[in-house]
């Protein structure tokens, strides 16, 4: 077990070191202007600067607040609608075409309307996160409800469990492994669009941090921002992965042969 | 009669083709009786069980329990499935509580009843475990405890031991017989295992396929607990073999 962790850490260190090495070599070759490709050391300095003067944490806080409001709203709406639509197959067959048309549209495409309807400030970014998270959760909930093993319904019926208890006691938990999978997908997509949303509409947050750095021609800060966004996204992803694995374990779904 | 099946048929139409899965079954079952429905796959034994459970309705004929026509499932008739039907997200205790939740019983009392039945099937040490942490035999014990906890009149068992290995199977047969004798339920038990039927049943209903129907009914007048190797046991087993024509009736032919 400890050897495993050691090996994994080694791989991460090696892979990141190689990347930084190539980057440093590219900088040393002198063929790229420092403003187009800042050196690793410069970016590290930029990162330290952002941490020291506290701007990073202000932007982190703002972004995470928006993120969780939008994401939690998407969870609530996606799961509730998904349960109802997954259960009412005939209604879903009417709504599905609309969903399938809207789903591939980038949330950013809605931006003009979002600004007209919700103004500026925090709301546009929250709405974009909501749209990004909503569809994966809705679709995985609908398919989760559709895939509930018929035997659970039979057993519940036999034991006299009626709606709405059936929905909350049987269908929701039975569909939950698939829903958790949707929550994971939604988290990734919502995080991507958080930054995009903040780049077009906001005066604060991690996306704004990057736009602001660009406007002041600080490419080192742009890259520093990118690294922070990646790291925080990774952290969130790991957290939800933990939740997913926990649920799978509890539900007795094993994932042998995968790591 | 307690359970009365009168001319019950079940037909299915699939892509315009009509198949008869059960044809004009007549069967009378007394209260407290242990009945085995025995036959190969496709003989309609599960269909018949589903009709009694109320999961399905006959296309003609009727199924009556206690004089009333069965139209839907009821807590008085609990079905136990081959793959147990346990809820994987619930602990053993919460699984057994499931059937008590639709009755007006407060939480404490519910837990107490559930624990009592978990004790009865000998799983008290595992009440906090989840189904995936238990062996097949243990999972089926949980399903038994869950069924008995709601105190049904009738237990319907659909090849409940079909997924277990031979040794576990036999100890579960002992267990089911013990629970039946202690709780005085009427049990209808679907199986394709001849020895299992002879060991458990008061009467064996022999069914044959295409179309599914009852061929004959064999009484098993052996005292309990039955000895699987006793000569009376083997005699009845041989009779069942003969019913399915699995036993050559006249050996002398081979020597001519």
Automatic annotation (TrEMBL), chain A:
Pfam families: BPD_transp_1
Family, per entry: Belongs to the binding-protein-dependent transport system permease family.
Annotated PROSITE patterns: ABC_TM1 (PS50928)
Domain ABC transmembrane type-1: 60-240
GO biological process: alkanesulfonate transmembrane transport
Stated name of the protein: ABC-type nitrate/sulfonate/bicarbonate transport system
Entry annotated with the keyword Membrane: yes
Keywords: Cell membrane, Membrane, Transmembrane, Transmembrane helix, Transport
Places the protein is found: Cell membrane
Organism: Acetivibrio straminisolvens JCM 21531
Cellular component terms (Gene Ontology): plasma membrane
Gene3D superfamilies: MetI-like
Membrane topology: Multi-pass membrane protein
Transmembrane regions: 12-32, 68-87, 99-120, 126-145, 166-184, 221-240
From TrEMBL, chain B:
Gene3D superfamilies listed in its UniProt record: P-loop containing nucleotide triphosphate hydrolases
Record's keyword terms, sorted: ATP-binding, Nucleotide-binding, Transport
Database matches in SMART domains: AAA
Organism superkingdom: Bacteria
EC number(s) reported in the record: 7.6.2.9
CDD domains reported for this sequence: ABC_NrtD_SsuB_transporters
UniProt domain ABC transporter: residue ranges: 3-234
GO molecular function: ABC-type quaternary ammonium compound transporting activity; ATP binding; ATP hydrolysis activity
Pfam families: ABC_tran (PF00005)
Name of the molecule in the record: ABC-type quaternary amine transporter
Regions that span the bilayer: none
PROSITE patterns: ABC_TRANSPORTER_1 (PS00211), ABC_TRANSPORTER_2 (PS50893)
Main enzyme class: translocase
């Amino acid at each position: 077990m400890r050897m495993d962790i050691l090996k994994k850490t080694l791989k991460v260190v090696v892979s990141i070191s190689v990347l930084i090495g190539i980057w440093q070599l590219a900088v040393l070759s002198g063929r790229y202007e420092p403003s187009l490709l800042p050196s690793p050391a410069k970016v590290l300095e930029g990162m330290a600067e952002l941490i020291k003067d506290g701007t990073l944490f202000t932007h982190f806080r703002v972004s995470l607040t928006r993120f969780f409001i939008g994401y939690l709203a998407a969870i609530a709406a996606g799961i509730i609608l998904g349960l109802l639509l997954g259960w009412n197959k005939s209604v879903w067959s009417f709504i599905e075409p609309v969903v399938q048309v809207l789903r591939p549209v980038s949330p950013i495409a809605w931006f003009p309307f979002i600004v007209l309807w919700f103004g500026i400030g925090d709301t546009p970014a929250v709405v974009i996160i909501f749209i990004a998270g909503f569809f994966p959760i809705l679709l995985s909930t609908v398919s989760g409800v559709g895939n509930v093993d018929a035997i659970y319904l039979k057993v519940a019926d036999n034991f006299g469990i009626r709606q709405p208890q059936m929905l909350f006691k049987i269908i929701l938990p039975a569909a939950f492994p698939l829903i958790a999978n949707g929550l994971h997908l939604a988290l990734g997509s919502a995080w991507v669009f958080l930054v995009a949303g903040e780049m077009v509409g906001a005066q604060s947050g991690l996306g704004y941090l990057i736009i602001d750095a660009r406007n002041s021609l600080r490419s080192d800060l742009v890259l520093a921002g990118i690294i922070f966004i990646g790291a925080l996204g990774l952290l969130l992803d790991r957290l939800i992965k933990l939740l997913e694995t926990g649920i799978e374990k509890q539900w007795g779904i094993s994932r042998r042969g995968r790591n | 009669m307690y359970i009365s099946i009168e001319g019950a048929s079940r037909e299915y139409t699939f892509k315009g083709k009509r198949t008869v899965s059960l044809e004009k079954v007549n069967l009378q079952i007394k209260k407290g009786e242990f009945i085995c429905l025995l036959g190969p796959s496709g003989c309609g034994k599960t269909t018949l069980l589903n009709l009694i459970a109320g999961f399905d309705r006959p296309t003609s004929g009727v199924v009556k329990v206690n004089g009333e026509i069965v139209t839907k499932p009821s807590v008085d008739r609990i079905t136990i499935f081959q793959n147990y039907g346990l809820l994987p997200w619930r602990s053993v205790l919460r699984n057994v509580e499931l059937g008590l939740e639709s009755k007006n019983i407060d939480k404490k009392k519910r837990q107490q009843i559930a624990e009592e039945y978990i004790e009865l099937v000998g799983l008290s040490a595992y009440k906090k475990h989840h189904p995936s942490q238990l062996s097949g035999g243990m999972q089926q014990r949980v399903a038994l405890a869950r069924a008995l906890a709601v105190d049904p009149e009738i237990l319907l068992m659909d090849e409940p031991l079909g997924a277990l290995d031979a040794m576990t199977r036999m100890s579960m047969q002992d267990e089911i017989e013990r629970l039946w004798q202690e709780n005085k339920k009427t049990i209808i038990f679907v199986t394709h295992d001849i020895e299992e039927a002879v060991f458990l049943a008061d009467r064996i209903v022999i069914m044959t396929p295409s179309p599914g129907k009852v061929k004959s009914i064999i009484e098993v007048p052996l005292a309990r607990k039955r000895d699987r190797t006793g000569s009376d046991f083997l005699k009845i087993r041989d009779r069942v073999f003969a019913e399915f024509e699995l036993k050559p009736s006249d050996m002398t032919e081979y020597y001519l």
